[in-house]
Amino acid sequence: MSQRAPQLTEDEVTRVLRRRGFVLISQRGSNQKWRHPEAGRQVIVPYHAGKQLPTGTLKSIIEGSGIPERDFRR
Question: What residues contact 24, with CB distance under 8 A and at least 6 apart?
């Protein structure tokens, strides 16, 4: 049986990104651009205070960041 994708808010996701070396580069409207200075990876995180990210958006962030999914689990 496969494990379900984690359900996280944007604050929880950005906390993981920051711990793994990502830096907030810019924000335009409700979208934040995070980049890892050494790996060169970049992800866009939609920021809607307190709301959980849609599963597809979270999966895209996980894939784009190169961070294992287990690091995003609570």
Answer: 14, 32, 33, 34
Contacts of range 4-7, beta carbons closer than 8 Å, 24 or more positions apart? 5/55, 5/58, 5/59, 5/69, 6/58, 6/69, 6/72, 6/73, 6/74, 7/52, 7/55, 7/58
Residue 48 reports pLDDT greater than 90: no
Q: What is the CATH number of domain 21-64?
A: 3.30.920.30
**Separation of alpha carbons 38 and 55, rounded Å:** 27
Indicate whether 2 pLDDT > 70. Answer: no
pTM for the full model? 0.86
Q: At what angle do helices 10-19 and 55-65 cross, to 10 degrees?
A: 10
Structure tokens that stand for 35 in this block: 């980049």
